[in-house]
Specification:
The chain has 449 residues and is of the alpha+beta class. The chain has a domain at 54-83 and 246-259 and 288-444: paralog of FGE (formylglycine-generating enzyme) (Alpha-Beta Complex). The chain is 20% helix and 17% strand. It has 10 helices and 18 strands. It has helices at 2-18, 30-33, 85-105, 138-143, 175-178, 226-229, 237-242, 259-275, 293-301, 376-379, and strands spanning 44-47, 50-54, 69-73, 76-79, 112-115, 121-127, 167-173, 185-186, 191-192, 195-197, 203-205, 213-219, 288-289, 365-371, 401-405, 421-425, 433-434, 438-440. A hairpin with a 4-residue loop joins strand 8 (185-186) and strand 9 (191-192). 31% of the residues are buried.
Length: 449
């Protein structure tokens, strides 16, 4: 009897201690990292992961060969409105001030930081953002002379910043080329054996990891002449002169932006976020970027099935007979949807869709990251579908097409439907195309909310 008791007690002892957590520290174990959280990005709405049918449904007639496809998209955050003039102007001012501070740093040492707070010299000096720029100081103006419009090009003898010199410089990694099997690192020979395509379209041998690092230099000031260029025999000079710069248009969507300028804004916004101090246990932020076509349509549908428009109806009017989006509802009549605006409107003027997103139909069309292809729905994957192509300057125009979604203030009702896709060339700027940003989310099914 005693023998059985000893055996039973021994088994209970082993079971008890085997269930205890190990006291040995394991790097990367869940217990060593603590809880994490993902704060709600300011001005963004959460789009939960899910599946839907991209493209027209059975009740829509958009042509005999328009396909559709069921796809699944990961969760993401999306700006609840299009990027406004005020928001994009902050980007312009940041680029202007960064260039100005570098030029001033060549004359005035206080505009550059050359050592750490502990007095350790830096390998490369940094911009001092604390020092104030006195734009009217003659000494400062002399130091900034190359930033101003040349004297022989000035109108009314006015000395002003040359917008053509506001260029944003950044780098990005081409993961698509790095992921090719032919470009894998050869551990046996300790080198790369593949080739890559640089931004000029040249095929070059891979020297090292830096070969996949792409360098972009993008002029970022909006093309304000689009208001004149886009409409022949039309008087739009007031919008050219004031739409982007005047404070009365602060909350209007920015236009005259190329696809590359929109990408540059996303990079700047990411850099600005990463440079800010994080809160305790805050998850590392994902990059801001342009939405894929699949993400954009999923967000526009708002979780509603078989709907023509983001508001879930088959009609462009509400029960009171009022139009519910900023578009061109009648032939030649741009004010039928609002007696206060002919072109763009303040963002958020109409009700949001079920996801809390404004102006997913009308106001301005929006750039996506996706390269336009007529057979895209047949080619793309059904999980996080995306078709990307980094066109080089010498590529034919057909390779530079990017998907544009949502329709605009100048479009008829067909173009503001959630399934309608169009395109524009990536180096073109238009008075009716803007953009909004998205950010991937690994938010754990709203844990802790």
């Amino acid at each position: 009897m005693k023998r059985h008791t000893v055996i039973i007690l021994s088994l209970l002892f082993i079971i008890f201690y085997s269930c205890k957590k190990p006291t040995v520290y394991l790097p990367g174990s869940p217990g060593s990292r603590g809880e994490w959280f993902e704060p709600i990005p300011y001005g963004m709405a959460y789009i939960d992961r899910g599946s839907y049918r991209i493209g027209p449904n059975e009740e829509e007639f958009t042509g005999p060969s328009t396909p559709s496809k069921i796809v699944t998209v990961e969760a993401f955050w999306m700006d609840d409105t299009e990027i406004t003039n005020n928001e994009y102007r902050q980007f312009v001012y940041w680029v202007r001030d960064s260039i100005a501070r570098k030029l001033l740093g060549e004359v005035f040492a206080e505009f550059l930081v050359t050592e750490t707070a502990r007095g350790v010299p830096l390998e490369e000096s940094k911009i001092n953002w604390v020092e104030r720029i006195e734009w009217n100081d003659p000494d400062f103006q002399n130091a900034l002379e190359e930033l101003y419009i040349p004297e022989n090009e000035r109108f009314n003898f006015k000395k002003s910043i040359d917008k053509r010199k506001l260029i944003y410089d950044y780098y990005w990694i081409d993961f698509k080329q790095a992921a090719k099997r032919a470009n894998r690192y050869d551990f046996a020979n300790q080198r790369y054996s593949g080739t890559f395509i640089d931004q000029e379209g040249n095929e070059l041998p891979i020297e090292n990891r830096r070969s996949f690092l792409m360098h972009e230099t993008t002029p970022i000031y909006p093309d304000t002449l689009v208001w004149i260029r886009d409409y022949t025999y039309s008087y739009n000079e007031p919008l050219t002169l004031k739409y982007f710069s005047h404070t009365s248009f602060d909350d209007y969507p920015v236009v005259g932006i190329t696809w590359k300028q929109a990408k540059a804004f996303c990079d700047w916004r990411t850099r600005f976020l990463v440079s800010a101090p994080n809160r305790l246990n805050e998850a590392a932020p994902h990059d801001y970027r342009l939405p894929s076509e699949a993400e954009w349509e999923m967000a526009a549908r708002g979780g509603l099935l078989n709907c023509l428009y983001p508001w879930g109806s088959y009609y462009t009017r509400n029960q009171k007979g009022c139009f519910v989006a900023n578009f061109k509802p009648l032939r030649g009549n741009y004010v039928a949807d609002s007696p206060y605006n002919v072109t763009t409107m303040k963002t958020g003027s109409f009700d949001p869709n079920p996801y809390g997103l404004y102006d997913m139909a009308g106001n301005v069309a929006e750039w996506t990251n996706t390269a336009f292809h007529e057979s895209a729905y047949d080619l793309m994957n059904d999980y996080n579908p995306e078709i990307e192509y980094n066109a080089s300057p010498d590529d034919p125009p057909v390779f530079k097409r990017k998907v544009v979604r949502g329709g605009s203030w100048k479009d008829i009702a067909h173009f503001i439907q959630t399934s309608t896709r169009s395109f524009e060339y990536q180096d073109s700027a238009k008075s009716y195309i803007g953009f909004r940003c998205v950010r991937t989310s690994f938010r754990n099914e709203l844990q802790g909310r």
